[in-house]
């Protein structure tokens, strides 16, 4: 595949932050097209081959303010006309035009949201095939071709073997396993976006290595909850970066920024993988905690607030399952965790009270409330599993403080309060069974990890011990170490486990800053830079390193990584990155083939000959 001077990844990174500032009038043809296609945002490829073309169409599409246009034409005459229209509309950069061949198109697989072919017969005579257009079209994207004055539209369906990532750990069951079968080696970059750094605020610098505290991928978009955005950069160099969180929505397939929304007044600190902010997507709705300590529901297409749920405390743990929203609110939960330093304490250590509430997604009505502090929760089979606690965890606060750990007599470290493991009906709140940390003889930090049809798994904070309990009565079925030690791929991906109703229990041997996930029979090690484990052994791709706290999110056939400022792998490329499978690479002949010469105003054959001589 020949790469044009339209440098896709760099172009996106620079340009997409400006797409929403335009409010120019878009022409009737563009309006008609976007209405037919059902989209007015993303990356659009216009194929302007042949005669009787609308020279203004690329400009009209770009003038809508949400569409980034790349136009490919076949001759200098068309090039001049289209560029003149773009220049007259002052849309240089938002619409780029080049003379390029059509076989192959200069795009990665699944990249373009809208392809417009105004003269399909001319394009096909030049070698453009339907197969090639469908290759570069993003899932859910539209192909619009014009024949005999009529537009025809084809939608590219989302493949059944692509998966989404809607919660912290895949889904409400916390399985850590993606069902995406399109992620495979070799890998290559798809897009790079966002601020190419992590903002650093000296007053709250515990997130300086990883300011992204939430990341979900669904509805053909990649959503991040992060303070690493250009809006937080200081006007003056001597000023601190602002640490307000923002929700950003990017096109999942090409990284174009679709919208951004500020979520002030919240902070989730500490450099450990379980210290995530509440951030969940379900259908066309996105959920997070707002600055007033309530659960906010946003429209995924626009970011507009749909409604706020009147929670008793600020939401910190949230899941959506079977049309129900479960919220664990914590007292003083808008600002939790350590504020400064490399703080690996669990962010609930100071929390002394909370409440669990379940709301109906459709009506917004609260179905039930339980006045208990739940530090972790998952759901499966209509059952909500929680680890609950009474009062703050003084052992977590004191015993794991890096400064005190070296000097404090360990015998003086307070004991952890007793934890209760509870299973309750998700819809009614009726308690099915309870167990305690004393029943399990567990003195370490304990979290509910994942759930299946007939069982639930719990994990100690060290990852050295796990517990699998019966969903029916809470009886102990099995104990052991975390699966990630000497794992067996066949077993871990759940073929045997799911038949027995036991969830594929996922953890990490020594939970640190980065979690590990499974996708397509591969372990995404994340913490170990570019290492992946599969049936055939280890694989390496050093183009990305899983982001601290978030890791590498597998979805839509891609791997997504947020901004990361990690000292473990300082050579990594900065910014939000998506990589995907490379299905074909250019040959030596392709790379050596001369790029068509574009003659500008200063072009002179004599000058060229003199320069060569």
Describe the model:
The chain is α+β, with helices and mostly antiparallel strands and 613 residues long. Helices cover 14% and strands 33% of the residues. The protein is built from 12 helices and 37 strands. The protein has a 6-stranded mixed β-sheet with strand order 3-2-1-4-5-6. Strands 7-31-32-33-34 form a 5-stranded mixed β-sheet, with no helix packed on it. A hairpin with a 5-residue loop joins β21 (354-360) and β22. The longest helix has 13 residues, at 76-88. It is elongated.
Instruction: Work out the helicity level.
Output: 10-25%
Cα radius of gyration in angstroms: 26 Å
Please give the count of helices. Answer: 12
Kindly report how far apart the N and C termini lie.
Answer: 32 Å
Number of strands: 37
Mean pLDDT: 84
Q: Strand order of the main beta sheet, please?
A: 3-2-1-4-5-6
* Overall spatial form: elongated
**Uncertain residue ranges:** 1-26, 483-510
Largest sheet: 6 strands, mixed
Look at the helices and sheets and give the structural class.
Answer: alpha+beta
Beta-strand proportion? 25-35%
Break the fold down into its secondary structure elements and pairings.
Elements: H1 8-15, H2 28-37, E1 42-48, H3 57-62, E2 67-73, H4 76-88, E3 95-99, E4 112-117, H5 120-125, H6 130-136, E5 137-147, E6 150-155, E7 177-178, E8 187-193, E9 212-218, E10 221-226, E11 245-251, E12 257-263, E13 267-268, E14 279-282, E15 285-289, E16 295-299, E17 305-309, E18 315-321, E19 324-330, E20 335-336, E21 354-360, E22 366-370, E23 373-380, E24 383-389, H7 394-399, H8 402-407, E25 419-425, E26 431-436, E27 446-451, E28 455-460, E29 466-470, E30 476-480, H9 489-492, H10 495-499, E31 517-519, E32 522-524, E33 531-534, E34 537-540, E35 553-555, E36 558-561, E37 576-581, H11 588-592, H12 605-612
Parallel strand pairs: 1-2, 1-4, 2-3, 4-5, 7-31, 13-20
Antiparallel strand pairs: 5-6, 8-37, 9-10, 10-11, 11-12, 14-15, 15-16, 16-17, 18-19, 19-21, 21-22, 23-24, 24-25, 25-26, 27-28, 28-29, 29-30, 31-32, 32-33, 33-34, 35-36, 36-37
């Amino acid at each position: 595949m020949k790469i044009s001077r339209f440098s896709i990844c760099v172009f996106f990174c620079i340009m997409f932050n400006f797409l929403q500032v335009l409010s120019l009038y878009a022409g009737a043809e563009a309006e008609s097209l976007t209405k037919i296609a059902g989209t007015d945002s993303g990356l659009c490829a216009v194929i302007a081959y042949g005669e009787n073309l609308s020279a203004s169409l690329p400009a009209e599409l770009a003038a809508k303010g949400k569409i980034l246009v790349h136009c490919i034409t076949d001759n200098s005459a068309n090039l001049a006309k289209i560029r003149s229209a773009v220049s007259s509309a002052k849309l240089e950069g938002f619409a780029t035009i080049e003379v390029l061949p059509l076989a192959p198109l200069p795009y990665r697989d699944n990249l373009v949201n809208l392809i417009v072919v105004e003269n399909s017969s001319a394009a096909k005579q030049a070698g453009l095939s339907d197969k090639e257009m469908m290759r570069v079209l993003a899932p859910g994207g539209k192909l619009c071709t014009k024949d005999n004055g009529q537009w025809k539209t084809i939608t590219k369906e989302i493949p059944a073997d692509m998966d989404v990532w809607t919660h912290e750990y895949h889904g409400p069951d916390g399985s850590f396993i993606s069902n995406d079968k399109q992620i495979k080696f070799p890998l290559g970059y798809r897009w790079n976006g966002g601020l190419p750094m992590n903002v650093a605020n000296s007053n709250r610098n515990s997130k300086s290595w990883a300011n992204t505290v939430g990341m979900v991928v669904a509805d053909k978009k990649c959503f991040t909850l992060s303070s690493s955005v250009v809006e937080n950069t200081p006007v003056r160099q001597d000023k601190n970066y602002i640490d307000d969180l923002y929700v950003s929505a990017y096109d999942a397939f090409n990284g174009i920024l679709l919208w951004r929304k500020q979520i002030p007044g919240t902070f989730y600190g500490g450099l450990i993988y379980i210290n995530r902010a509440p951030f969940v997507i379900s259908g066309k709705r996105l959920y997070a905690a707002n600055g007033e300590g309530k659960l906010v529901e946003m429209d995924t297409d626009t970011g507009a607030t749909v409604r706020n749920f009147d929670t008793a405390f600020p939401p910190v743990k949230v899941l959506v399952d079977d049309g129900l929203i479960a919220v664990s609110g914590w007292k003083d939960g808008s600002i939790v965790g350590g504020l400064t330093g490399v703080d690996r304490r669990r962010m609930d250590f100071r929390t002394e009270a909370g409440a669990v509430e379940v709301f109906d997604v459709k009506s917004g009505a609260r179905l039930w409330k339980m006045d208990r502090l739940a530090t972790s929760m998952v759901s499966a089979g209509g059952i909500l599993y929680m680890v609950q606690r009474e009062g703050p965890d003084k052992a977590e606060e004191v015993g794991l403080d890096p400064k005190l750990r070296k000097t404090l007599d360990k015998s003086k470290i307070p004991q952890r309060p007793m934890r209760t493991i509870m299973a309750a009906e998700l819809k009614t709140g009726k308690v099915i069974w309870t167990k305690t940390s004393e029943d399990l003889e567990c003195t370490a930090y304990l979290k509910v990890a994942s759930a299946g049809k007939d069982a639930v798994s719990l994990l100690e904070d060290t990852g050295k011990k796990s517990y699998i309990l019966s969903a029916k009565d809470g009886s102990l079925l099995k104990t052991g170490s975390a699966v990630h030690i000497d794992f067996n791929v066949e077993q871990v991906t759940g073929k045997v486990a799911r038949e027995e109703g036991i969830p594929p229990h996922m953890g990490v041997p020594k939970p640190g800053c980065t979690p590990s996930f499974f996708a397509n029979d591969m372990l995404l090690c994340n913490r170990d830079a570019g290492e992946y484990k599969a049936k055939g052994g280890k694989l390496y791709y050093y183009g990305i390193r899983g982001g601290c706290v978030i890791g590498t999110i597998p979805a839509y056939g891609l791997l997504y990584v947020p901004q990361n400022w990690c000292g473990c792998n300082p050579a990594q490329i900065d910014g939000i990155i998506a990589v995907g499978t490379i299905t074909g690479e250019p040959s030596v002949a392709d790379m050596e083939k001369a790029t068509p010469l574009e003659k500008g105003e200063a072009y002179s054959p004599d000058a060229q000959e003199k320069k060569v001589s």
